[in-house]
Automatic annotation (TrEMBL):
Residues in AMP-dependent synthetase/ligase domain copies: 3-358
PANTHER family: LONG-CHAIN-FATTY-ACID--COA LIGASE, NONRIBOSOMAL PEPTIDE SYNTHASE PES1 (EUROFUNG)-RELATED
Protein name: AMP-binding protein
A matching Pfam family: AMP-binding_C
GO molecular function list: acid-thiol ligase activity
Listed NCBIfam families: PRK12406.1
């Protein structure tokens, strides 16, 4: 592994993870417990994730934009026995850490500190804190056979406002082998001494996290980009002869905006398998990237709950612009109406799906929410779409209110629950609107108290203290009244429709 000027061999990583696992076990961390990780892409993230798996605990990656309230909720919900956190991220969540959670701190590495403009004093180990490296060094290696890894418990969300942890049952050895084989064949993550993976997206997200850990399991050489920058990515690809990469469409957009002379400056001929997903990719963007990089770009569709269920090659993308592809071998997909009946080919309905091989899951402490998304053995994440006559899946919209901005899931209910408490706000609605760069942007429509004199900057300032910055609305509108359905629920469709019609897209 390469990170800035630092290097770590897989032999060293394995030895450190084994000692970390021994330390976690001695600290009372065992099967079905949780080890939370609030780390940027760094060696320590891999060490702690692997170590948690060895003792049968869930690794719980946390979004490092979270506030103390947001992080505290997850730490309490998963009952985290341990939190491993970068030094510069600790102050923003310190007030939310439960007293029952043991905290280990990782000094923020120089390349990450430089990328995020972190001062030396903030990047250093805080006085009185417990260093993760000291904990690992002082621990004896795990002396018993490792448990079957539970993998990561990723927190995703819905219209109820608070995130839910996707907690999988321990897989069988057969399931583990089958998933490894599938990921290896699709993502190209197979043992190969000539392959080099580039990690450019934060591994607290489900797909980049799965990608990075899968690459580590087969000991694929890996470069950790401290923060995505379009030209720096091209530089790293050339310098390290990168062959494999996971990316999101927003990165494509930023890459395509580079001047032509910059695009021609770097040798990208080493690329073999570039995988993208997490958000819709406009057909013209996909086409332009294939023309530039060649037919090395593949797309997947799925969710944290389901894994990969649909696959789309460059050839298929050019043949069927706008498709997300065809179901992978063994996957089950159904497109159904409001009564759960399968619709005819070409008709739009809600997509229910199940990936092959993955063990079943529930939502941590929320079995009722798991049942709400079920249709027999299939589950939905609220996407709406259709199959064409050739069996290609096309997505139209999401039935639920989730916003996907730059590949990041954002849930309006979380923002609304904070905004409704703002003095001077009578009511509010938050939803996604088209955005050229990020796919979707956040729009908040506020019904104010006429005497409050609120402005858009006031709304953002209020929210800035309560939610992560990426959840701040790009557009803030004010209305005397909000449209409501007969039930009294705000009719968001009427609020969103003008934006989507202007962009020529369905809602």
């Amino acid at each position: 592994m390469v990170a800035g000027d630092r290097r770590l061999s897989f032999a060293e990583l394995g030895a450190r993870a084994l000692k970390a696992a021994g330390g976690l076990s001695a600290a009372g961390v065992g099967e079905d417990d949780s080890v939370a990780l609030m780390l940027r892409n760094d060696f320590a993230l891999f060490e702690a994730n692997i170590a948690a798996g060895m003792v049968g605990a869930y690794a719980v990656p946390m979004n490092w934009h979270f506030t103390a309230d947001e992080a505290g909720y997850i730490l309490r919900d998963c009952a985290a026995k341990v939190l491993v956190v970068h030094a510069d991220l600790l102050p923003q969540i310190a007030d939310g850490i439960p007293s029952t959670t043991r905290v280990f701190v990782v000094p923020t590495p120089a390349e990450i500190a430089a990328a995020y403009h972190v001062a030396d004093a903030v990047a250093a180990l805080p006085p009185g804190s417990h260093a993760w490296s000291d904990f690992v060094a002082a621990s004896a290696p795990l002396a018993v056979p490792p448990k079957i890894s539970r993998g990561s418990m990723i927190y995703t969300s819905g219209t109820t406002g608070r995130p839910k942890g996707v907690r999988r049952k321990p897989p069988t050895q057969e399931q583990m082998d089958a998933v490894t084989q599938q990921i290896g064949s699709l993502w190209g993550l197979l043992p190969d001494p000539t392959a080099v993976a580039l990690m450019n997206g934060p591994m607290y997200h489900s797909a980049p996290g799965a990608y990075g850990m899968a690459a580590a399991r087969v000991q694929m050489a890996m470069v950790l980009q401290p923060r995505f920058d379009a030209e720096d990515m091209l530089r790293l690809i050339e310098a390290h002869r990168v062959t494999h990469m996971h990316i999101v469409p927003t990165m494509f957009v930023r890459l395509l905006r580079l001047p032509d002379d910059v695009k021609r400056k770097y040798d990208l001929s080493s690329l073999r398998n570039v995988t993208h997903g997490a958000a819709p990719c406009p057909p013209d963007v996909k086409r332009a990237m294939i023309q530039w990089w060649g037919k090395v770009i593949n797309e997947y569709y799925g969710a944290t709950e389901t894994g990969v269920v649909v696959w789309n090659t460059s050839e298929q993308a050019l043949l069927k612009p706008g498709t997300v592809g065809k179901p992978v071998s063994g996957a089950i997909l159904r497109v159904v109406d409001e009564q759960g009946r399968e619709v005819k080919q070409g008709e739009v309905g809600e997509i229910y799906m199940r990936a092959p091989f993955l063990s079943d899951f529930t939502y941590n402490n929320a079995d009722d929410k798991r049942r709400e998304v079920s249709l027999g053995e299939l589950v939905t994440v609220g996407d709406v779409g259709y199959f064409d006559p050739d069996g290609y899946l096309f997505l139209c919209d999401r039935k639920r209110d989730m916003i996907i901005s730059g590949g990041v899931n954002i849930y309006p209910a979380e923002i609304e629950s904070q905004l409704i408490d703002m003095p001077g706000v009578v009511d509010c609605a938050v939803f996604g609107i088209p955005d050229e760069e990020f796919g979707e942007a956040i729009c908040a429509v506020v019904q104010p108290d006429p005497a409050a004199g609120l402005g858009a900057d006031d709304v953002r300032a209020f929210l800035r203290e309560r939610v992560a910055r990426y959840k701040l609305p790009k557009i803030v509108e004010f209305r005397d009244q909000l449209p409501r359905e007969d039930s009294g629920k705000i009719f968001k469709r009427k609020l969103r429709q003008p934006y989507w019609e202007k962009a020529g897209r369905a809602i």
